Amino acid sequence: MFVRERLVSLKKRVVYCVFAWAFAVAAYAVEYDNDVQSQLELLPYKYSRLNKLKVSDNDSPWVIHITDYHCQYELQQNISKIIYFIANKNRNIPVPICIEGASGAVSTAFFSSIPHEKTRNEVSNYFLKKGKISGAEFYAITADTNQQLYGVDDPGLYNRSYELYREVHHTAVKLQPQFQIISDFFKNGIQQRLSTQSKTIVMAGKKLYSESNVKRFIVSMEPYWSRLEPTSDFSAIKRYYELERLVSAVDFKKVNELKKKLFERLAAILPADQREKILFNTYVRYQLNEISEPVYLRHLAVLGEEYNILDRDYAELMHVTQLLEEIAGFNHEQLLEQCILMYDTLKNHFLTPVERQFVMFYEQWNIIEEMCVLGLSRNDFVNQQFPDKDARDRLLMYVLSAIGDSNSSDKELLFPVEFYAAFNQLYNDVSSFYQSAIARDSALANNTVSLIQTHKVPIVILVTGGFHTNGMMDIFEKEHLNYAVINPHGLEFTAQSNYKSIMMEYPQGAMQLLYSPQSNRLAPRVLLKNILADPILSQQLMKEAALMAKLLAMTEADTLSGFSMAEVSYDSNAFKKKVTDTLKSFTSEWIYRLRKAMPQHGESPADVRKMENSLLQLVLIEESLLLKDGKSIGLTVFDADTETFVHVDAAETASLNTILNYDSALFPDAPVTFDLEERLGSFTFRFTRTQQPTGIF
User: Fold this and answer.
1) Is residue 663 helix, strand or coil?
2) What's the whole-model pTM score?
3) What Rg do the C-alpha atoms of the chain give, in angstroms?
């Protein structure tokens, strides 16, 4: 009875998220543990995966490398959670956070000094969604700790990479019409020139290259690779397929019943302290998706063996545990390499010579397209796995000959002379970009090592793109440092327009944006106060932050919450005074907090005074209107820098967006008037820009 009541109580606790989160956090903070390897093994599975771990010397410092995919909101959230987890485990010591796209100390004082925790978090989360700050910066702003951000990039190499990135993008956009002709040719050829069987194999190979989904490839290609000669040695693929087949046949309903039964028996016989600390704690972490199914099952199995209750009834449960553990134990990179070899073998076996020639050019074109958006993998570049000039010329002649057979239009119109020159220049820029990116490996790693030596810290967190991982790890090994590589979850291909608008310094929708792959995204320059931050863009970020912080302060401040909107009009003096007093108090507190915070971030007195003046003059809110339902807010805003009025139509339900992205001084080609929408906190806003006063002041 005790066990049943305890299980019911536990289930209720798990359902309530607040308690579950408190339980999990309490479990992590029970005891300070300076064993970094043990800490990393407790990383919550729901937002991270420990990819690599190398212990060179137990007494050596640790580099904890978190791989980044820039401007992806969910992943940046998870990076912030990983940093919080590690910093909380080592809360008694400083844990510097090293980032790319910056050099030297990075000040978060302007953001972290925003009064009112809720307002500070809302503003920071807004910029995180927009890709204008990273997960590491979000943590440094909101965590209220002494952990400091340090840029470890090389300014010269980064700026070279940044300019090359922009050149590649501009050239690729210019060549897009000719690229589309070639892509359409191969798209039509796949449908017309390949048999159904050949097309199935080729398209599976393309998905394998673009998505790296080995499970889908292995399962879908089984009817083909199973017909190869028995001497073909693809043992890992065959074993992986066999495991997936066995798992698909498992009766998981029965497994769940066995799992529940084993849990109840363990709960009944474990001593009280172990029942709470070992069994229930693990169960809660499993329910919160912080540990995987195989890990949870193995935990039950170990306890079952220890207390001698694993009898014949649990054989199937143990069998499934072993299957899931073996699947999870596969090295994904090695399995991917074997799948690529398998794909080449299938092409040679099943495609005709004519089909193979067409597919060879088709795949060369896929590689070229990948290169044009800087999507070629590091290994492929290092191993020169891309078409040279002769191969490119042969590909273009092949396309021209095929088009000429069915189309009498002038080939010079399809591929003018200027195209070939730009095409070759694009290749040169791409090659230079990769060389610069690889050179940054050493800068990022060596600057991290120097920081460890200068500050004499036992742990640093290093957040960079995964492109740099292997190059940096080689350097850390030579320095006899311990290191770990953590992959945050949330690698979906999203936030493309955010990333491109930031990198190209254009407002969203102002130009054609090419797709940017996951692997080779250049880190945006850190826009907070730093040597690599563009002064104009940094000022824009602060102007935008100040506007949003003031809006939130006005809409959520206690001084306004009790004000009866039904009794006054928006232009009443009483209401205006409430708004003015609220904003004056909010700005004063912000400046006070800024004065205290900025010297801690290494700012000079002159910097502090400059920031104070900027804060006072950024954006002046002249008047406002709160609707009765609290759902929307209307504002008339005057931008002191550009002397431009922005009127908000309160009759429309919309949201706040960065009007400052369309600053006419920065973007002379931007539209004179525009309608912008964005959500902030619990309110929705609509901004309409005009260049003349609207007469309502």
Assistant:
1) coil
2) 0.79
3) 29
